[in-house]
Amino acid sequence: MEFSELIYTGRAQAELLRGGEAPRLRGTLCVTGHHLLLSPEPQSTPDLWLLLLRSVDSVEKRVAGDSGTITLRCKDLRVLQLDIEGVETTLDIARSIEALSSLESVITSFPFFYRPKGLRLGDAWHFHPPERYYKRVARETTAWRLSEVNQDFSLCPSYPRAVIVPRTVDDDALARCARFRQGGRFPVLSYHHAPTGTVLLRSSQPLAGPQKKRCAEDEELLAAVLACGPPGARGFIVDTRSAQAAKQARLTGGGTEAKAAYPGWRRLHRPLERGRPLQESFMRLVKACGDTEQSMDLWLSRLESCHWLAHVKEALTTACLAAQGMEREGACILVHGTEGTDNTLLVTSLAQLILDPLSRTMTGFQELVEREWIQAGHPFQLRCAHSAFSHTRPKHEAPTFLLFLDCVWQLSRQFPLSLEFGEGLLLTLFEHAYASSFGTFLCNSEKERCLCEVRTRTHSLWSALNQAKEQRKLRNPLYVLNPLTIWPSVEPQSLRLWQGMFLRWSRPPESSEVVWEKVWQIVAEGEKTEGAQPTASASA
Amino acid sequence: MGCFLRARLSHSWELQEQRVSSMAAASTSKYNSHSLENESIKRMSREGGNQDLSETVPRLPGEMLITDKEVIYICPFNGPIKGRVYITNYRLYLRSLETDSALILDVPLGVISRIEKMGGASSRGENAYGLDITCKDLRNLRFALKQEGHSRRDMFESLMKYAFPLAHSLGLPNHHWRITFINKCYELCDTYPALLVVPYRTSDDDLRRVATFRSRNRIPVLSWIHPENKTVIVRCSQPLVGMSGKRNKDDEKYLDAIRETNRQISKLTIYDARPSVNAVANKATGGGYESDDAYHNAELSFLDIHNIHVMRESLKKVKDIVYPNVEESHWLSSLESTHWLEHIKLVLTGAIQVADKVSSGKSSVLVHCSDGWDRTSQLTSLAMLMLDSFYRTIEGFEILVQKEWISFGHKFASRIGHGDKNHADADRSPIFLQFIDCVWQMLKQFPTAFEFNERFLVTILDHLYSCRFGTFLFNCESARERQKVMERTVSLWSLTNSNKEKFKNPFYTKEINRVLYPVASMRHLELWVNYYIRWNPRIKQQQPNPVEQRYMELLALRDDYIKRLEDLQLANSAKLSAASSSPPNSSQMMSHLQTQF
């Protein structure tokens, strides 16, 4: 389909209100296939204003007299208002935005057309996280191997081509395990904790069903995991569902690992909210944050009734539990829920941040997101199809990735020096997960990305972020390597609403940005002077 | 800081008069002292190397540029010279901008004895508008400025502030306000300070008559005057209106006199801190508020801040949900049910209204509650903190507390119950704590605006109860005087001032003339966890603040690099002058390359 068919009126005179302190912009509004453009009248600012249509979450239109108003609520939680001359024009433009912002086709999306200056296609796509991570594991232990059993994605469509498994388990056994796990997601290594020699694994639920089926290879695999661990290692299976829900899953063919079948393993249930309730919690929170009418005195109970902070607390608590098992009890941990593509990843990635200093570096964190979310098959396209403002009934949408980012933010607030990246990176990842000019968060799995040739036909967000000019926005200038485990406090008093995210567009007059600016200046001055020193002595 | 710097660097005086003749070879003798003139003429020597002296203002360690401005220096010897003046926290430095003169003035601020404005915005004649600075070293410096947009204000205020750091002068007395000694022996009002500032044209007899109509004789007196628009904040207690609706001509006249100290304003704004219901109820006990009929030129609003009993109960509830165990299951709604943050919001909102009225020049403001020593102190001091950057320094904040709370008779002894075993005394209330909490909320919202840090506030609160210092003992100044507190005790400020580094906010950026309006919305107010829940071992307590700590490290590291760079440059220039051209020692180079940042 041609975009032009969806553009009913291409041009209009309009005025844009961006909220906060940003000045109004007046000028000519244009709708293109992927963008909304406003070229301001010559006397005002010369900069072109540009909005990726994909980032529009909902469109509301209102007409009065001979003009109209369109309110655009964006996926990054911004609210924009366009005052447009002409009733017909307004309605046409609103229709165009609605249609163009919700196109489902991946290969006609903007990343396939975006060719930014200074970046080369294919850059940064070449890093293959599982392979790269395996190199690190191989330096630490020989008990694990890289298997390419999923080379053609036939075993598990949501796994990458290569996965890390116990050396003693061969590919045939893996194939049989895959058949016993939902979506083929058999247990694979997520993280090897070198200090204690324990491991973190993830999978989906076993397909035990009402007859409590068993699978010898699956049992052997988990036994092999314990054998790889420290002598006498125990194992914990952290199930992200309640015991009740896990039991009920048997009726639909799923279930849990039977105790007798997996000696040495113990099951723990830590129910985490997912799917629609989580999405609704997000929507309620955003609504509460944007509500200027309500009596402010009831803010705290309203915030509480959104339950968002409770979800943050539960996610961090479960991650701490997994980390504690590995660090303090010398135990191996397997995490799964139902599909193993949402809360499972939330828990494994947070546990790594808590335990592993390398994952708290700029590169380490990017690799963690790539490996534990994108490659691990978190269905970004489904989960992030809509954000908090959408009027359509949520289907597969859920802000699990945002919840992860919020938890990371809580860690960064409690350990302000221990993460090499700052709030800027988290906000950027949130924006790009929901709407992006880059291909990084496209599709639901590695398999789909291969089919769409995302790697060769779009640019990677990582290479854009790693340009020198972006660093100031993304890095934490106070960072010092902290080799220790960072145990967060999960008391409700220690967890805060992430104002930088949820009150981003209505923040207090002066936020901590001023402080960061000062720190950056000092860091830059220090680096400059340090750089000058050898030169000075060389000139002697 | 200014004083300290000045004392430490007094020897640099001698460097002040320097003259480098254009004829002299710069390399041999750089400075020839000439003591007959105070102007130093510097000319760049053509062989003087590439170091462009004309671009730099000499800077001592710790010296900071405050402001700079283009001026005409009216030299009594050579006539007007166009130049740029730089004011630092240590000196006034002027460099000529004219090509044929290389005049330099370098005057430490300690030399200044008096600063006067000359001419007004409408003065005629060339160079009639500007500043005249009288120096202790027998000279005067006259600067003329452009007659537009208050061009001298910035320079005048910076000089006043840094040349006379001891007196943060509100410019009093002036034509409209006088200092009265009517309360010298606390005979007018025993809970007020000895010195009071009142409208110029109100006599002491008038004041005595006003006192009869104000609860506990706490008459309206000046707290703060806006340096530009001359609107004021005045504080007092409630009028004794009573059930019968009594009036007092002197009080009415007095409020009008306050209003008229600024001719531009037609209404005096009265902020009654109480909820209107309570104000009405107070009539039953002889109190009340200013009625519209009696006070034609005043506009009264109620700020809905509750009384000491409500605040005490609210804090009790806070304690219940945080100690010993923190209420976990419904933390936010439990917190809401204490209403503590709601009270904080109302106090801040009230103070913002006061500050806004005065800052906009729309009206002068009179603040009272019932007795004018609890809510009134909160409102005036918070408004002053928002309006006047001086009070955001360590020293300024101490003065603010000393003035608006201690001198004006906030009943510390009764509110805290120093030494009293009667724990259920209804007179006790955490009013001062609530004020400090409001200050903390402002600190959070303006991380660079305050010279002090969270630790400073916690320390003040700790010693509010400790009784180790005399600062918060007794209820008022007269009692303190009777008990000879000044002679018999040490002040808390002597502790804080001798440990200033510990209490400094490293992110502080000096700003003059900036009014801070915090966001007093529940969304942006937070429970002060580091104070209220500090005893709970499960709450992460990081003291000193790791961010501040790390920033100080970075600062130190940078200074170290700069110093080493300077040393190297010095060593290099020494080597160069020794005409040695040996290649650099490679191992020495490596050691520099390896230093980590």
UniProtKB/TrEMBL annotation, chain A:
A Pfam family annotated for this UniProt entry: PH-GRAM_MTMR6-like
CDD domains for the chain: PTP-MTMR9
InterPro entries: Myotubularin (IPR030564), Myotubularin-like_Pase_dom (IPR010569), PH-GRAM_MTMR6-9 (IPR048994), PH-like_dom_sf (IPR011993), Prot-tyrosine_phosphatase-like (IPR029021)
Domain Myotubularin phosphatase: 124-502
BP term (GO), one: negative regulation of autophagy
GO cellular component, one term: cytoplasm
Domain of life: Eukaryota
GO molecular function terms listed in the Swiss-Prot or TrEMBL record: protein phosphatase binding
Family: Belongs to the protein-tyrosine phosphatase family. Non-receptor class myotubularin subfamily.
Name of this protein: Myotubularin-related protein 9
Organism of provenance: Dipodomys ordii
High-level lineage: Eukaryota, Metazoa, Chordata, Craniata, Vertebrata
From TrEMBL, chain B:
Residue stretches making up the Tyrosine specific protein phosphatases domain: 338-400
GO MF, any single term: phosphatidylinositol-3-phosphate phosphatase activity
Pfam families according to UniProt: GRAM, Myotub-related
Keywords recorded for this protein, A-Z: Cell membrane, Cell projection, Cytoplasm, Endosome, Hydrolase, Lipid metabolism, Membrane, Protein phosphatase
EC number: 3.1.3.95
Enzyme class, UniProt record, top EC level: hydrolase
Residue ranges occupied by any Myotubularin phosphatase domain in the UniProt entry: 149-532
Cellular-component GO terms for this entry: filopodium; late endosome; plasma membrane; ruffle; sarcomere
Catalytic activity, reaction form: 1,2-dioctanoyl-sn-glycero-3-phospho-(1D-myo-inositol-3,5-bisphosphate) + H2O = 1,2-dioctanoyl-sn-glycero-3-phospho-(1D-myo-inositol-5-phosphate) + phosphate; a 1,2-diacyl-sn-glycero-3-phospho-(1D-myo-inositol-3,5-bisphosphate) + H2O = a 1,2-diacyl-sn-glycero-3-phospho-(1D-myo-inositol-5-phosphate) + phosphate; 1,2-dioctanoyl-sn-glycero-3-phospho-(1-D-myo-inositol-3-phosphate) + H2O = 1,2-dioctanoyl-sn-glycero-3-phospho-(1D-myo-inositol) + phosphate; 1,2-dihexadecanoyl-sn-glycero-3-phospho-(1D-myo-inositol-3,5-bisphosphate) + H2O = 1,2-dihexadecanoyl-sn-glycero-3-phospho-(1D-myo-inositol-5-phosphate) + phosphate
Localization annotation: Cell membrane; Cell projection, Filopodium; Cell projection, Ruffle; Cytoplasm, Myofibril, Sarcomere
Biological process, per Gene Ontology: mitochondrion distribution; muscle cell cellular homeostasis; negative regulation of autophagosome assembly; phosphatidylinositol dephosphorylation
Entries under PROSITE patterns matching the protein: PPASE_MYOTUBULARIN, TYR_PHOSPHATASE_1, TYR_PHOSPHATASE_2
Disordered: annotated span: 34-56, 576-597
Membrane topology, record value: Peripheral membrane protein
Keyword Membrane found: yes
Active site: 369
UniProt xrefs under SUPFAM superfamilies: (Phosphotyrosine protein) phosphatases II, PH domain-like
InterPro entries cross-referenced by the UniProt entry: GRAM (IPR004182), Myotubularin (IPR030564), Myotubularin-like_Pase_dom (IPR010569), PH-like_dom_sf (IPR011993), Prot-tyrosine_phosphatase-like (IPR029021), Tyr_Pase_AS (IPR016130), Tyr_Pase_cat (IPR003595), Tyr_Pase_dom (IPR000387)
Biased composition (Low complexity): 576-591
Record function comment: Lipid phosphatase which dephosphorylates phosphatidylinositol 3-monophosphate (PI3P) and phosphatidylinositol 3,5-bisphosphate (PI(3,5)P2). Has also been shown to dephosphorylate phosphotyrosine- and phosphoserine-containing peptides. Negatively regulates EGFR degradation through regulation of EGFR trafficking from the late endosome to the lysosome. Plays a role in vacuolar formation and morphology. Regulates desmin intermediate filament assembly and architecture. Plays a role in mitochondrial morphology and positioning. Required for skeletal muscle maintenance but not for myogenesis.
Subunit structure: Heterodimer with MTMR12. Interacts with KMT2A/MLL1 (via SET domain). Interacts with DES in skeletal muscle but not in cardiac muscle. Interacts with SPEG.
Family the entry assigns: Belongs to the protein-tyrosine phosphatase family. Non-receptor class myotubularin subfamily.
Entry protein name: Myotubularin
Lineage of origin: Eukaryota, Metazoa, Chordata, Craniata, Vertebrata
